[in-house]
Amino acid sequence: MSEAVETKQKESIGEFIQHTREEMTRVSFPTKEEVQKTTIIVIINVIFFAIFLFVVDQAWSYLLEGLTWIVSKIVGA
Length: 77
Fold this sequence. Notes:
Elements: H1 2-6, H2 13-24, H3 32-75
């Protein structure tokens, strides 16, 4: 990182590709099993939060309808 900051000159496309290939040798990619496990975790979390937010939304709707009914009875409308 410090090398890139210290050099202010532009590099050629060939140098850029060479540096990119060098960096790609340092990258570690997840295995098929890791991808499957994390995908399952994400799907379970999405389903959980969808259900949770649905329940919270229904509760708020019920609460607000109840408050609206109470206020309308108090006001007499």
